[in-house]
Amino acid sequence: MENEFDLTRHRDAYGSAHCSIARALEVVGTRSAMLVLREAFYGTRRFDDFARRVGVTEQVASTRLKALVDERMLTREPYQEPGQRTRFEYRLTDKGRDLYPVLVSLLQWGDAHNPGPDGPPIRLQHRDCGAPVTVEVRCAAGHELRARDVEVLPGPGVRAARKRRATTS
Amino acid sequence: MENEFDLTRHRDAYGSAHCSIARALEVVGTRSAMLVLREAFYGTRRFDDFARRVGVTEQVASTRLKALVDERMLTREPYQEPGQRTRFEYRLTDKGRDLYPVLVSLLQWGDAHNPGPDGPPIRLQHRDCGAPVTVEVRCAAGHELRARDVEVLPGPGVRAARKRRATTS
Question: Residue B43's closest chain A neighbor by CA?
Fold first, then answer.
């Protein structure tokens, strides 16, 4: 049987609940959450700008921003302009910043497979050297990989769950 | 003003509708669509296995699989076992396979920031050399990058939209 991965034989023992992809999607698994984070990477800080640039109602923007603050993806910090009441701005935390490869890989996939009629809307380049930017799946020895090159093995989480089952049965 | 990116000055002219991230999320912007694709990468082919392993109802599995076939992420091909009626199996297309960096980067983020109590459930290794696998944002000159190292510039899509606006106004 042809498989990209070798996990199938462990698959039912493994279970979605343990999956780090599923856990990640609990936090960022809505389109509007991902677009709010996109805006944060683009430098957006202020509530009104988030709502307008994501293209959602203030209610939706408020819900998403609050959830992302609760998840420690964004911080919410007060600022005040002369003669105005205190407002808040939102900034990426390290946890939020670590989502950057997800957004760049979505961008890359969208550019390749679902671009607008005029082609990719934006391009990313390395600020220092000007070379174009991509996401790559690589191993620690430096090989660039496709899905079929990657083997999926049980990690500590699956091994611990198995040990518990073996002990209690 | 501190910005990760330089796009803010073009930001309102640019608009979400043109965004390749938003376009990608039109196709894979639900949690269950992403988890169905995860299963396809893990080697799942059959309807019943998708429903059980993603942990959704048959109705939801059916809707997601159909949408992913309509989007040419998966193909649906007949197979028949002796004495059984014809059934269908689902396989990733090249377009589907190109989503691999998105899933690996979600996995990596989940492992880092939202792992289970026992640690990462699975680990990925290069089939040939055994080294661990990660996703990296890199430029074509080989530099590994963080968000702050990346400049966002208007691409062909934004330039064409600007030209049209300039012509019609």
Answer: A3
- Report chain B residues whose CB lies below 8 A from the CB of A128: 143, 149
B73 and B58 in one domain?
A: yes
Of A68, A2, A4, A3, the closest CA to residue A30 belongs to A68
Cβ of A133 within 8 Å of Cβ of B112? The answer is no
Of A11, A118, A140, the CB nearest to B161: A118
Q: Give the DSSP H/E element, type plus range, for residue A96.
A: helix A94-97
> Does the pLDDT at position A14 exceed 60?
no
Interface test with B, best of A30, A57, A109 (most B CBs within 10 A): A109
Q: Are A78 and B40 in contact (CB under 8 A)?
A: no
Q: How far is A128 from chain B (nearest CA, A)?
A: 7
Measured between CA atoms, the residue of chain A closest to residue B26 is: A31
**pLDDT(B8) > 80:** no
Contact yes or no for B27 and A100 at CB 8 A: no
Q: Is B139 helix (H, G, I), strand (E, B) or coil?
A: strand
Of A11, A21, A54, the CB nearest to B106: A21
Are B83 and B104 in a shared domain?
Answer: no
Query: Residue A128 in 3-state DSSP?
Result: coil
Which amino acid makes up residue B131?
A
Q: Which CATH number characterizes residue B53's domain?
A: 1.10.10.10
Same-domain check for residues B69 and B109: no
Looking at B93, B116, B145, the residue that finishes a domain is: B93
Q: What are phi and psi of B47, to 5 degrees?
A: -50, -50
Whether B105 and B84 map to the same domain: the answer is no
- Taking the CB of residue B72, how many other CB atoms lie within 10 A of it? 13
Question: What interface predicted TM-score (ipTM) does this complex get?
Answer: 0.87
Query: Quick one: tokens of B134?
Result: 């990660």
Task: Give the model's pLDDT for residue B41.
Answer: 94
d(CA A17, CA B73): 24
Domain count, chain A: 1
Read off the pTM: 0.87
